[in-house]
Fold this sequence. Notes:
- Strand 3, helix 2 and strand 4 form a beta-alpha-beta unit.
- It is built from 5 helices and 4 strands; from the N terminus they run H-E-E-E-H-E-H-H-H.
- 41% of the residues lie in helices and 15% in strands.
- The termini are far apart.
- Helix 1 (9-21) crosses helix 2.
- The protein has a 4-stranded mixed β-sheet, with helices on both faces.
- 17% of the residues are buried.
- It is of the alpha+beta class.
Amino acid sequence: MVINYGMTSKKALECYGAKFLARAHTCRKVCLPMKDAMDGDAVHWYLAVIMLDDKQVHLLDSYPSKKRQRSRRNAVVTMIEFLDGLFEDLYRQVEPTLDPPVLEKFSLTIPSIPEQRHESDSGVWVCSWMMGASWDSSYNIWPCGDIRRMQLALYLVQQPTNYIRHVVIEEANRN
């Protein structure tokens, strides 16, 4: 999103720093949902997970495509380059005595993960990986289906940061 709007790392820090980045220097993992706009209206989601302690970037794609592999890797590399500048600016402001991680030196790996049968489930897989990323680095998720979609929807609706949470709950109680 930030890169699509042509933001510099300094501008991103200015806009989002107070809300999202105040404790970024204590992060161990950073999840980057990535969107691949394909032919026509098709959209595919995949995930890059930056493992700061391990100095690795994991590229997770539940529906890999040989045709799109290079462009997806390049998009992750572009995001890493952007984040390098962001981390450098952030550390300068928040923790000037610490050196920021140099993400461009991290190895980009593609772990062996389950693959989905239908391309249309990629967003559900990305959400599942992100929800489990804090405690699990194996990226094994259960198969997608209506039950999993409903679990994700309920989880997202119930989050305190969902600003229309009360509306959804009121509607559910009415029905």
